[in-house]
User: Which sequence fits this backbone?
């Protein structure tokens, strides 16, 4: 665990308890009594926040969500909601809304009946149920679809109904487990903004699970990046992308160029790294401690520039050979051979002066040392 993450998790417990809406405290989970799928998970969530648990399959993120929902019980640790422990509280008494990937709508009920169900089990009056159902349908822009069955709706409309059902009884916390995974790209993007709009308008607290980094960056106030049951970094989307604290986060969030080598000089905010190719690069030391350390350099493709032969404004400049140019509309994705790496990527806006790149061409590229992060090997 990184030092900054440890510092964030070591906040004074009295202060956190006073302000946190939901908390995981040293939570562990094992299904077989031997292997931990969640390891010492700590997270405090403020009221109204949109927090995403992001990571590859099997990293423990969904297990954490299920423990908050009450469908799984922690092996160790405690989960608090509004300052009260809920480890032993059954799911139906937690007052939490839940949205699943497969929608989980009742096929024999109409849309309005699906939305009314959680209100009926809470014994609301018929008049209150009718008003809340209409309000929920308006929230997801499906006012005219109350009489339809789920099978008569598109995938995006069904997901809207599932979201409305999770919100209809006005919970303070909504949990979402890969809710957009079954949708195509356009619908998924549309629903991302729809959920973000609803979150902003209602101010409800949301915990969202996904393995899709774009989804997480688009929607979240904070993101917890999971790997092997451990939170690798907890930060805002901007901080995760711009300032990854280890190699896993750097390569899981967005695209990165990777260069491996050894630290040969270390002074303040800059270190000099001799790459395996023999080239020397100036970088920002993030997860290396001293001379002799093995490191992996992380460099975003959009932070690489094409430079003139006589340009000396950037600390790192190298000759590159163009291997492949892919046209992607608003930008070009160019694969280069640089510093012994034949998979080095350059992203350039589709503007005059960049469209002329062609395979086999030799160019000069450069980047700032502050954009090149020296991470763990």
Assistant:
């Amino acid at each position: 665990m990184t030092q900054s993450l440890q510092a964030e998790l070591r906040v004074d417990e009295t202060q956190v308890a006073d302000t946190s809406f939901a908390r995981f405290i040293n939570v562990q989970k094992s299904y077989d009594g031997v292997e931990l799928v969640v390891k010492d998970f700590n997270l405090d969530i403020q009221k109204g926040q949109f927090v995403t648990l992001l990571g590859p399959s099997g990293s423990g993120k969904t297990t954490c969500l299920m423990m908050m929902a009450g469908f799984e019980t922690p092996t160790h640790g405690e989960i608090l909601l509004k300052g009260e422990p809920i480890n032993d509280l059954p799911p139906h008494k937690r007052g939490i809304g839940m949205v699943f990937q497969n929608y989980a709508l009742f096929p024999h009920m109409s849309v309005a009946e699906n939305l009314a169900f959680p209100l009926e089990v809470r014994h609301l009056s018929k008049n209150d149920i009718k008003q809340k159902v209409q309000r929920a349908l308006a929230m997801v822009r499906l006012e005219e679809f109350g009489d339809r069955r789920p099978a008569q709706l598109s995938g995006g409309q069904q997901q809207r109904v599932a979201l409305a059902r999770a919100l209809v009884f006005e919970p303070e916390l909504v949990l979402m487990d890969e809710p957009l995974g079954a949708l195509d790209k356009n619908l998924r993007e549309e629903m991302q903004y729809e959920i973000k709009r609803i979150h902003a308008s209602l101010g409800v607290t949301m915990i969202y699970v996904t393995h899709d980094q774009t989804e997480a960056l688009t929607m979240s106030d904070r993101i917890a990046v999971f790997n092997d049951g451990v939170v690798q970094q907890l930060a805002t989307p901007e901080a995760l992308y711009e300032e990854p604290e280890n190699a896993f986060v750097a390569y899981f969030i967005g695209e990165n160029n990777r260069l491996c080598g050894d630290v040969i000089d270390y002074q303040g905010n800059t270190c000099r790294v001799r790459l395996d190719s023999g080239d020397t690069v100036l970088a920002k030391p993030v997860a290396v401690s001293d001379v002799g350390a093995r490191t992996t350099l992380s460099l975003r493709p959009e932070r690489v520039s094409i430079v003139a032969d006589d340009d000396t404004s950037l600390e790192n400049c190298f000759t590159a050979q163009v291997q492949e140019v892919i046209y992607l509309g608003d930008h070009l994705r160019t694969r280069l051979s640089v510093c012994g790496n034949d998979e080095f990527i350059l992203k350039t806006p589709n503007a005059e002066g960049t469209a002329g790149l062609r395979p086999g061409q030799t160019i000069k590229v450069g980047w700032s040392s502050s954009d090149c992060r020296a991470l763990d090997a």
